[in-house]
Fold this protein.
Amino acid sequence: MTVTRSKAASIRAARRDRWAQRLVQCGLHAGLMAWGALAVYPLVWVLLTSLKYTRELYADPFGLPKHWKWSNYQEAWVYAKMGTYFLNSVLLTVGSLILVLFLASTAAFALARFEFRLKGLVWGYILFGFLIPHSILLVPLAIFTRQIGLYNRLGGLALVYAAVGIPWNVFFLRAFMETIPKELEEAAIMDGAGMWSVFWRVILPLSQPALATMATFHILSAWSEYILALVLTGTTVSRTLPVGISLLEGHFTSNEPGVAAGMAITIVPVVLAFAFLQRYVIKGITAGALKG
Amino acid sequence: MRRGRKRGTSWYGSPVGIFLFVFPAVGVYTALMLYPSLLSLYYSVLEWEGGPISAAPFVGLANFRQMLSDPIVPLALLNNGRRLFLDWAFMLPVALTLAFVLSRLRRGASVYRFLFYIPVILPATTMALLWRFILSGNDYGVLNSLLRMVGRGEWVRPWLSGDGYVQWSTSFPASWQHVGFYMVIFLAALVGIPEEYYEAASIDGASGWQQLLHVTLPNIRGVYVSCMILTLQGALGAFIYPLLMTKGGPMHLSETLISYSLYLLWQKKTWGYGSAVATLSFLLGIIAVALVWRFGRQRESALYR
């Protein structure tokens, strides 16, 4: 009798516990949703505003647009030249991505798989780049790129983006390549593979996860980079979206929806890219965090 | 495609081979990053106001002495300090709290992580325009019209033009934007704490709070120190929000060291002095990182000895 009673009581207690836990979880979710809404709202607001008429924006800055004014996008894309800037941003991002991955992975391969004199020195030399802020490069680069004919060229800017990305990329790729077992490489050498084919056919394919992570970080940062692009480009032919957007107000003095359309053109691709590539971001940061 | 030679092993790992692999990266990095940064140090000891550099006289540390009597430099440093204060007093604690809550969640953590990270990836130039629109003192300033809408007209402030307001208005957006980044770092660290530690603690009768205090926090101290270093570098290098929201104004009130150096370089064309201000921020960054790193490591090694 007592046994069954205590059993019933403990079941009741367990049920109460479960309810309490559920309540706590609900409360947590409510708080998290509030913060999530705050994080996403700017994006939503930009999208809504980009479809409004200017007077509607002033009358009702938060509501849905009553008449969707798609022509804001046309104005931004054509008159404010966001179309050109968009193409430039795509070319720059892709070009600098290929450059930085090639440069960093070859160096990381040599540093990860071989012993050589001055290795420690080369390593320290590259890592010193972590301490160099981009802002002290501006004047020297503005002068230097003019001297060597890279000023106001997307190719020159891509090379600069690759250069400033080298320390971080070499650091991460070397750490990954060091974990690849030596046996695979030895088998390839037995088959008569040279240094390049070991790199290109063995190490590089096996480094794919690390390359994907670095590529994701590079895409996200190159798409948003502002100050180097501002200083090293001078005309529409090589301007990128972040620079273009900062010049937009000149074109549209009292057309905030037009500016919002330009912002949407800048923001939406990077949000989509992040949605597809987010696991690489998480992986990269996690790897960094565990190294402390 | 096949570039490996028949007797590839003779090349393999030879100094020439290694050189060919290392050189492209080291060359590009040297030419476009290291060399320019040294040039910048050199410019900072010149009196150079446009014109050919060969005509600029060497003035030693005169530019750095000039900073001591420049009233804008302490204003700018203070704004870097405000940003650091917001990062340490607001951003890191919020990020840690969010990460802690997410790590206790049964389901849905990855959705929240995605949402919280979105501000991090949005280009700061667009965010700066957005914040300017929100904080504008004009009739259409979003925050001010919101305050009027809810009947709090007396709280309306000149967020972007008033002394005491503009400094925070140009610091806060950057802190807010990066919460998600640090949250992901903390979340990774929290998930990395072995479950056995908590089990052992609860067997010893530790309550939830005690577990947080004695298991969770000590185990993420190293990561927390690393994040403090990152925020230090971020705060010293801050410029984009002041530059794009207020151009450092009004009257240089919202300037940071870097935005002030940009003003000196590109508006006033005092390239020597402007480079010196940028160099100051670079040197402070190195010193600060060295200090925090040393301090943090010492604490840690004392803890685990």
Remarks:
- Residues 1-9, 300-305 of chain B have pLDDT under 50 and may be disordered.
